[in-house]
Amino acid sequence: MAKKYIYIFTNPSFPKYVKIGEAEDPQKRLATANASTWTPKAFRIYGTYQTDTNNSDKMLHDLIDTCTDKLHVSDKINGHLRKREFYEMSPEQAWNIFKKIAEITNTTKKLWKNESWTTDEILEDIDSENEEHNGAINSTKRFNFKKYGIPVGTFIKFKYDSSIQAKILSDSNVEYKGESLSLSRLAEKLMVERTGKKWKGYQGPAYFTYNGIVLKDIKGKISSKKCNSIAVESKKGTPENKKRFDFQKIGIPVGSILKFKYDESVQVKTLSNSNVEYKGKEISLSKLAKQLMSNRTGKEWKTCQGPAYFTYKGVLVTDVKNKIISKHGKSKAGAK
């Protein structure tokens, strides 16, 4: 039986998608795809995995669809469902699936990844990224590695040449060739070296991968999880205490600043032992939590336990309260 290869194709014309198919000769299939005049830009081959089974790409499609049917691109034409070999995922994510299957079956030698990017391919990829983000390639906030679960001491790889690695030094800086740099500064340095061109700004997370996933995709997943947690809480709701929360009782002075759990740019000032100031108005913590959550989720909330939605010095107010209660409990036990 002739060797078969499952392949990953990318195309700068639609950077959000990858094509996962099967061919005896992926390079020949690539040439056929690029002979078409239906796409503005050419397909690229990202990687392949050799198999000895016919229709192994269909099996892989079924596997992905079993996990989630949201990635497989589909469309309805004239009342008929149309599904092709395209998936809404990054090539790094698709490659990670190939890797895991190869590791499970002890066939990693059958993996092949195209590590070479030409200057033209890099420039086209950057143009596509910029179009996708409406030209916004520079981020005002530094990427925080700790926030997204990337420990100090681990390594990230340059998207366009995985042999180039940088070590995480702190929550926002990396080490490259003995020098401490921000992610954006390193991206600028490497891109100028690779292309000879310089942009006005660089969104650092778009140029590096961690465990095969582009950092900006990791950031997107975390943001999505936060939104999902809000949605879950909106269904459950939280009971409102009959007693008003007493800031002074747990050591939060009048005039202190509290931050909304789901958006730290939303801040309030404690006015008394039980009320806060928000946009010039005095309001209880529970009423404000209810108002903010209704605005954020688009759903009407019956009750909200105010301390569960705000932080004080990085600690959830309910946790501050529980620590105080725990201390009092221990002191009483000690008195006995």
Q: Brief description of this entry?
A:
The protein is built from 8 helices and 18 strands. The chain is of the alpha+beta class. A hairpin with a 7-residue loop joins β1 and β2 (18-23).
Q: Can you offer a commentary on this structure?
A:
The protein is an alpha+beta fold and 336 residues long. The protein has three domains: 111 residues, no CATH class; 94 residues, no CATH class; 99 residues, no CATH class. The chain has eight helices and 18 strands. Strands 4-5-2-1-3-6 form a six-stranded antiparallel sheet, sandwiched between helices. A six-stranded antiparallel sheet has the order 10-9-8-7-11-12. Strand 4 and strand 5 form a beta hairpin. The protein is elongated. 25% of the residues are buried.
Radius of gyration: 26 Å
Q: Numbering strands along the chain, what is their spatial order in the largest sheet?
A: 4-5-2-1-3-6
Give the termini distance in whole angstroms: 81 Å
Report the mean per-residue pLDDT as an integer.
80
- Number of E-type strands: 18
- Which oligomeric state applies? single chain
**Helix-strand topology string:** EEHEHEEHEHEEEEHEEHEEEEHEEH
Percent helix, as a range, is 25-40%
Q: How many structural domains can be distinguished in the coordinates?
A: 3
Q: Kindly name the structural category.
A: alpha+beta
Task: Figure out the total of helices.
Answer: 8
Query: Spans with pLDDT under 50 lasting ≥5 residues?
Result: 133-139, 230-241, 328-336
Beta-strand portion reads: 25-35%
